[in-house]
Amino acid sequence: FVIIFNTVHDPLSASIGFSLLGCVITWRLVPELKENFIKINLSGKDLNKINKPVIPESMGIICATVYLICLFLFIPFPFMEWFTDKGKVITRREEFHSPTFPHHKLGEFLSAMLSLQSMVLLGFVDDLFDIRWRYKLLLPTIASIPLLMVYYVNFGETHIVLPIPLRFLFGGYIDLGYLYYLYMSLMAVFCTNSINILAGINGVEIGQSLIIAISIAINDLLFLNGSDPAVEAHLFSLYFIIPFIGVSLGLIMHNWYPSRVFVGDTYCYFAGMTFAVVGILAHFSKTMILFFLPQIFNFAYSVPQLFKLVECPRHRMPKFNPLTRKLEFSKVKLQKPLNLPTLLSLKLFSTFGLIKIMENNVNNIDKKKIIDDDKKDLDYIEVNNFTLLNLILLKFGPMNERTLTICVLIIQVLTSCLAFFIRYRLVHLFYEI
Ligand code: UD1
Ligand code: MG
């Protein structure tokens, strides 16, 4: 009774309660339902195992559904003071000259949930139909529209404060106008897709998302003693992030190496959209970007392949060597003569030591015996696929799948430490905080 009484009056405790519930339900539901996914062919081969077992895919849909139900049930809690003990509350509110129900706050909640729900739906459609890469970019833009609408109505703020070193050029503030809305929808596109392309080994999609979510929660908690508007915004963020951590923990128990289930694009989109929603509506998109540094690196590194300057195979994940049972960096064959964009990309990345180019060693073969067409096919070079996972393997040598996941997670944790250092120590160099 004490717990129930406290949760009614303290939405944060309620959120933690729903998070625990979400964790347990996801953890129990996934094994219950996984056979049904296999039956309808929602499954994928675990490519980095000896016998390539077929395991259920798109389990993110279970995790996201449980999350949304938790949030639906949670909606009344932040507004409980309006439903209970109303007389007293109104008197207290009148002191702040705001005696009416905070419809704007409810609007924010509902729009955030609508965006998340749309993103989960579109992510699931992607899992079902394997949508082409260029259309994948469009999905989060569509899902972010309700969010932008509420931002426009509630805040409409499109000014940004410029960092001190840039002020001599543009002044203190700059109004980005509609570009600000473009920036916010690009943020949704980036958060979702960047998690989806830092993927392909057991546990890495949820692992990175969990570390980002925990970092966001820590950042929010640091603000709770501050001024009123910041507290409201960061409480809003916590209400979305805490249950996210819960359901993700429930799912990672089945997705950690060796995976019994795959999370699918549904989870990647769901996670990315959760981060975009809180970053935008709680106004800390710059800090959010700092938490995404590994994903930004992986995206920038991937650009030549994503934009087809260099050939991009369907899967760029590392390659499993059955003899050593370790993962090695995967390669892509580039037929000679190389075109100019490919040559420039290779030159740029090799200057920074980011790629390894391997010349074809069939020169020793007696070419006279090979007919002309075949000779052409043999004229190629190989280069590692441009992803962070392959780069780690290139620099540190082959390793097993779990070790590689742990390496990525360590990088993610170090990034968060760096992000906190920049946000709370170096920030004084850029802003008057
Ligand atoms: C993105 C990447 C692709 C990478 C794939 C892995 C880009 C442009 N696309 O594609 O290079 O190979 O993610 O998820 O960078 N799988 C495993 N083990 C895992 C996770 C996934 O073997 O731990 C395999 C399974 O066969 C699974 C498939 O990857 O069915 C899922 O790939 P999908 O999410 O559809 O690939 P994309 O997101 O399109
Ligand atoms: Mg994917």
From TrEMBL:
Enzyme Commission designation: 2.7.8.15
GO biological process: dolichol-linked oligosaccharide biosynthetic process
Major place of residence: endoplasmic reticulum
Segments passing through the bilayer: 14-30, 59-79, 106-125, 137-154, 160-183, 195-218, 238-257, 269-293, 403-422
Pfam families recorded: Glycos_transf_4
Membrane topology (UniProt): Multi-pass membrane protein
CC annotations in GO: endoplasmic reticulum membrane
Ubl conjugation among keywords: no
CDD domains xref list: GT_GPT_euk
Cofactor(s) the record lists: Mg(2+)
Gene Ontology terms, MF aspect: glycosyltransferase activity; metal ion binding; UDP-N-acetylglucosamine-dolichyl-phosphate N-acetylglucosaminephosphotransferase activity
Coiled coil: none
Pathway in which this enzyme or protein is active: Protein modification; protein glycosylation
Main EC class the enzyme belongs to: transferase
Role noted for this protein: UDP-N-acetylglucosamine--dolichyl-phosphate N-acetylglucosaminephosphotransferase that operates in the biosynthetic pathway of dolichol-linked oligosaccharides, the glycan precursors employed in protein asparagine (N)-glycosylation. The assembly of dolichol-linked oligosaccharides begins on the cytosolic side of the endoplasmic reticulum membrane and finishes in its lumen. The sequential addition of sugars to dolichol pyrophosphate produces dolichol-linked oligosaccharides containing fourteen sugars, including two GlcNAcs, nine mannoses and three glucoses.
Protein name: UDP-N-acetylglucosamine--dolichyl-phosphate N-acetylglucosaminephosphotransferase
UniProt organism field: Diversispora epigaea
